[in-house]
Structures are given as C-alpha cells and as structure tokens.
Design a protein that fits this description.
The structure is a homodimer. Chain A is about 40% helix and about 10% strand. Chain A is of the alpha/beta class and about 400 residues long. Chain A has two domains: about 5-45 and about 300-390, Aspartate Aminotransferase, domain 1, CATH 3.90.1150; about 70-295, Type I PLP-dependent aspartate aminotransferase-like (Major domain) (Aspartate Aminotransferase, domain 2, 3-Layer(aba) Sandwich). Chain A has a seven-stranded mixed sheet with strand order 2-8-7-6-5-3-4, with helices on both faces. In chain A, helix 9 (about 190-205) links the parallel strand 5 (about 170-175) and strand 6. Chains A and B meet through helix 1, helix 3, helix 4, helix 6 and helix 7 of A and helix 1, helix 3, helix 4, helix 6 and helix 7 of B. Chains A, B: Its EC number is 2.6.1.-. Chains A, B: It is an enzyme of class 2 (transferase). Chains A, B: Keywords: Aminotransferase, Transferase.
C-alpha cells in the first residue's frame, strides 16, 4: 500500500522521541520542574536581538516581492556574496557568491551532498560518536554508511580504525567538529593527518575522496580553541553549515553548502548539488532568512550561557565521580556511563528524573549524552541527583 | 566521481532557466522595459499587509526560543490546530491538528507524498498539461511517471485517455486544480467522475489508489467559481498545499499535507509521510512562518491584480486572433500556438521580445504558457506585439 521503508523510518520511535514522550508523562506525576531533561539539542539561548532588528528592518524597507519571492535555486545572489565575504574575512579564503549554495540548514546540506555524490556501492565514512541521522540520510541515497570506532580517550579521530574502513569504495568522509555528542573539536594536527591520508588514498584509488564538514557548532567553541577551517587543508572539501546554533534559529531552516574553487571539478560538483537539491525539493532556501543571515553573518554569537552551563555540569559530574572528556565546543557532555550497558544506565538515571541519551545511539556505547542547552537552574539542581545516581554504583 | 543522475538533473538547463538567461542578455540590447517576460510563475502582488504585521507582532510578543526553535517533525501543534480549524470553517471538514503535516511548501509536500507511497513498479498518473517537475520528483523515488493526454477543448480531465493509463500498478493520481499552466478549475462533475472511477478501480485491483491534490492556486479562482475540496469526494485523498501564491510567500517555503481520518489507514500513511519527510530532510517546516500562516489562515487573498491582468491579456489575445480556453484560476493563460510546433512559435515570439513557454514542457504541445503575474503595464504594452506576431501567421 505504501513504501515499507518510509513507514519504518517514520514509525520507529527514536530514542529521543521516546524520551520526550516519557518526559511528558512523568511531568504529570512529579511536576515539570522536577524533570531534568538533558536529551534535546534545542538551543535555549534566545536569537540575538540583531536578528529581530534585521527582520523588522527588512520588512519595513525592502520590497515584499523581493523579500518573500522565489530566489534562484542556489539562493539570493546578494546573500551569497555577503556570506562569502564574511567567510573570507574570518578564514582568509577567497570565496565569492558562486561558491555558496544556500540551503535549509545542516541536515538539508549534508543530505544534498550525499545525494549529489553517492552512487550504489559508494561508502560514506563517519567517525563515532556521530549524529545518528547520518546513517539514514546516506542509506536513502542508496549508498552505504560506514562507522569508524571512537577514540574514547579524547574523541579525536581513531586513525588506526579509520585505516581499516577506508577503501576504494569510499566516496566521502564526514567530519563533525565541534562534535555532537562529544563536544570535541578536531585539532589542527588531527585535520592535517586526516587530509594527508585522504590525499594519499585519492592517489592510491585513483579517484577523489570528498571531505564533508558538517559544522553547525562552529561558533560554539570555548576558551578560544581554534576550529580549523577544512577547505584550507584539503581541496575536495564541502562545508555544510547551519545558522541553527550560532544564531539560535534551528526552526528557521537556514544554512549553506560551500563548494570551493579548489574542488576537483567545480562545475560538475555544483551541478550535481543543484540536481540533488532539486529532487530533494530543497531549491530556494527560505528567502527572508537568506537575507537576515547574510546581513548578520559574522556577528558574534553569545555562548556565555552554554559555557557557564558546561562548567557547572562538567565540574558537578567530575565531582560526582564521572569520567568525561572536557568538551571544547557544542553544547553536550559525553561522559562514560557508570556501567558498561549505557542503555541500562540511562534507564536507571530515570529514577532521579535525569533524562539522558545512551551513547549507543551515536555509535559509541558505554557513554551517555547530556545536552546542557537548558536552564542553568535545572543543571544546578540536577547535580545532587547525579551524585545520588553515582552513589548507587559505588 | 559524482552521481551522474544528479549531475544531469542539475546541469540540464530548464526551458524557463534558458528563457531567464535570454531575457537578461536581450535586456542589455533592447532595454529591460522592452522585454515582455511571461515565463515566470513568481507572484508580483506583495504579501498582504497582515503578514508583515503578524510577523512583527510575533517577534515582539512571543518567546524567541519558541518562535525560532525546533518544532516537532510534523509541525508546531498550535499551528496545526489553527490551520485545521480554518479548513473546517471553509470546507465543512472535521480535521484536527493531527491531520496536518506542516511542510516547506507544495513541492516538498508532493515529493514527500510520492516518496511515502511509491515503491518500485508503482505508477503515478498526472493529467496534461502538468507541472513539469512532477516527472523528476516521481522518478527520483524509483516510481514511474505516467502522463494522460490533455483534453484541449476545456482542459478538464480526458477520461478516455485516463482509462488507457490507469492499471494495477497505479499508486496515485495527481490533480492540480486550479491548474498550472491551463488555468482550468476541475468542475464538481469532473471530480465526481474521477472519484467514481478511482473507487471502482480500487475494487478491481484490490488495493488503494491515492488522489494527491496539489493545490497551491486554490485561492486564485475567479468569478466565484467553486474549487471542489477533494477529501469530500474521495477518502484516499492527500491534500498538498502551499501559501506561496495565496499569501505571495513563494520564497518562504511554507505549506502542509492534509491526511484525512477517512484515508485507508491513517496511522500507517502518516508514519510513511513522516519517514519520507525525514529522509528528504523536510522535518520541521520553517518555524516563524508556521506561526504566521496559522494565524493568518483563511484571511482573504487579493487576487484583483491577477484578475485584471487576466482580462487584459485574454481579451487582447482573442482580439489578436489567438484561440484560448478562458481560465478560471491560477495566473496563467495557455493558448494554442499559431503553428503546430509550439517551440518554433515561441522562438518566433522572441522577435517581439515576447518570452513564452512552449506547451511541450507541460506535456501539451501546440500551446504556450503566458504567466500574467507581471506588471499590468507590461501586459498592456505587449498586446500590439502579440497582434503583430499573429499577423505573421495570417
């Protein structure tokens, strides 16, 4: 009657959805204020005031048909130029508008890239822990998703495991830094090593291997840690960006793909991206927000709330006896679960109304994700509960 | 290196894109004011003032994290309820929010439906003249696109041709009324006959056949012509809607799918739609505009400009000797070309800087499309040129 595959993708409850439903039910029992929901990556910092001001300014001063009308498939030319200029200023790159394909955010960007590049028998590699949707996005294009085991000591790339997975079918490698869920930022050393391996493998297999940089958390990086800009290290890079996190606009579906001039065949790649956007019905990213983000591109994001939350939660968990790699970015902690079975651990945490996501979901069992983009007071009140939970394991 | 299929979809210049490039080049020769570009379906009526007021009101009075945050995959619950209520008021239906899946507009809605329903060997039928993108959207899901020849006498459904095309592989039938490009509105008689045939064929083939109503032009209907609401005539209907035309918001990517309770298995269909939206990365339609259209749902669209343009162009063309079915809706005329080869005709029209789209693109050769969502003065100035063009054929 319908596509079984789509039915399964739509009916299987994701862990996070199951947690959301549990949270709602449990809130009725113990009160919403006693639920410590660390499961969702929804920014809790309001969009900067300049976003609102820019929207109102555009509405008051620009022509309605131009603000709300169709843009070209790849985006409004002026917005593309402004975004390119902002990137050049920050990263010393040499982009122009033609290097930008405006999209409805990071998920759209990466799925367009997968669809543009992938053919049957192709493989896309991601490093655990990884965003779980990669798998179904890649598989829906007919390609194969390949996961590389995590390096749990620091969540940089596990190169010995990578070496086992890369092969002549590898079409692309996905990098997500700052990382969801580990909060790790890949160091320049890691990126240089990765680029070197890819260049060598391109020669060995005699075909390009693309590097897809999924970087919605780029601006959420702490203590001035450097987040290397990948096109500077590797020519065959596609940058997938979203303004969801930096401008707290996740619902507005706005971002872009960068296709650098240095890529192996710009015109062919750009055309394939346009074709993929067409059949995924992702041409013409939301037009008002194309203008808004272009005008605001490069303006500072306020990450002080996240930084404060991170410190409170990280210190609290360490004090409680948890073991956790200190994150350099994003808004997640990814500590070790206190028993090997991370699902059992997260079940046990529910006793204290601590709602956590098992690491297994991110291809990295034995850990759990705690998103700290929530109220600071909720985090503060949760620390004694984490301590009680840890007590049970002593 | 990349997906050949996507490259072809992205690199082949569509007729309309080719015309746009020609228009730009030719404008440099003869001046922009002397180009009569009838090729684009981009509304030229500004969005109603209440849209702007609603956006500003929401920005000033609602919580930023709720306005710009993630909504549920299927949309903001309150927006879904408001849209359902507005539909019930207009059509006497009995929808609630759960019948609505908010989407990024009509193209997203129909491609989600194709992906949700279609399996290999399935066939999707559309009636010529049809929106050309149907074909690549259907084919990208792995299903087959089947076109039914036009009834050129009135552009209602050609039932004898339909009878030749419907078969046991038919998964769904796509209806687009008011129609792009013919401007025809399918009468209640047509819809009843279509529904009767589908019910009978469902029995004969012993499986459901879905009716997909692609209706972004619903509100653009003239002289109080009735546009039948399809779920009232046929249970297995999915309604795909966009606010692009009624609110002049084509760039904002906002619309919905209605899944009625009466459909054969609501939970299964809705889940398949959710799954398709997931892999097409179309979960969570743009959040601000979900709220905006929900608050404005049911408010009147100003179609007076289109109606006036239609009358001027229609009367001018008839006077010039063209033959054309008078449209009841949308903002296109679809006259007969003055020679059998519609492409040659449109080439010849370029001599007068009249830019028209051949009917062949819509599966209906021997005709051309003229979009009249352009400046009234441009239309007025074009009439003598159409007359000169017609003179050439006398």
């Amino acid at each position: 009657m319908i596509s079984k595959e789509m039915y399964e993708l739509g009916s299987k409850k994701s862990t996070i959805r199951a947690i959301a439903e549990y949270a709602e039910k449990q809130a009725k029992v113990v009160g919403k204020e006693n639920i410590y929901d660390f499961s969702l990556g929804n920014p809790n910092v309001p969009a900067p005031e300049y976003i609102k001001e820019t929207i109102i300014d555009i509405l008051n001063n620009e022509d309605s048909c131009s603000v709300h009308g169709y843009t070209a498939a790849y985006g409004d030319p002026e917005s593309r130029e402004l975004v390119a200029k902002s990137l050049n200023k920050r990263f010393g790159t040499n982009f122009s508008g033609k290097n930008l394909f405006m999209t409805a955010g990071a998920a759209a960007s990466i799925s367009i890239c997968f669809k543009a590049l992938g053919e049957r028998d192709d493989e896309f590699i991601a490093f655990a822990p990884y965003f779980p949707e990669y798998k179904c996005f890649v598989e829906s294009t007919g390609s194969k998703f390949v996961a590389v085991k995590a390096n749990v000591s620091d969540f940089q790339i596990n190169f010995s495991e990578f070496d086992k997975r890369i092969n002549e079918h590898t079409k692309a490698v996905i990098v997500n830094s700052p990382n969801n869920p580990s909060g790790a930022v890949y160091s320049e050393k890691t990126i240089i090593k990765l680029a070197d391996i890819l260049k060598q493998k391109e020669k060995e297999y005699n075909h390009p291997i693309f590097l897809i940089s999924d970087e919605p958390y780029r601006e959420i990086a702490y203590d001035n840690v450097e987040v290397p800009y990948l096109p500077k290290y590797y020519d065959n890079t596609l940058v997938c960006y979203s303004y969801s996190k930096s401008f707290s606009l996740p619902g507005e579906r706005i971002g872009y793909i960068v296709v650098p001039n240095e890529i192996i065949d710009f015109d062919v790649i750009f055309a394939a991206i346009a074709g993929a956007a067409r059949v995924l019905t992702h041409v013409n990213a939301p037009s008002l927000f194309q203008k808004v983000v272009a005008r605001c591109a490069g303006l500072p994001s306020d990450i002080s709330t996240y930084e404060n939350n991170k410190d409170i939660l990280y210190n609290g968990l360490i004090e409680a006896g948890f073991s956790c790699v200190k994150p350099d970015g994003a808004f997640y902690l990814f500590p070790k679960s206190l028993e090997a079975d991370d699902e059992a651990f997260c079940e046990k945490a529910k006793k204290y109304n601590l709602l956590l996501v098992p690491g297994k979901d991110f291809g990295c069992p034995g850990h759990f994700r705690a998103a700290y983009c929530i109220k600071t007071s909720t985090i503060e009140k949760s620390i004694p509960l984490f301590k009680k939970l840890a007590e049970e394991y002593k």
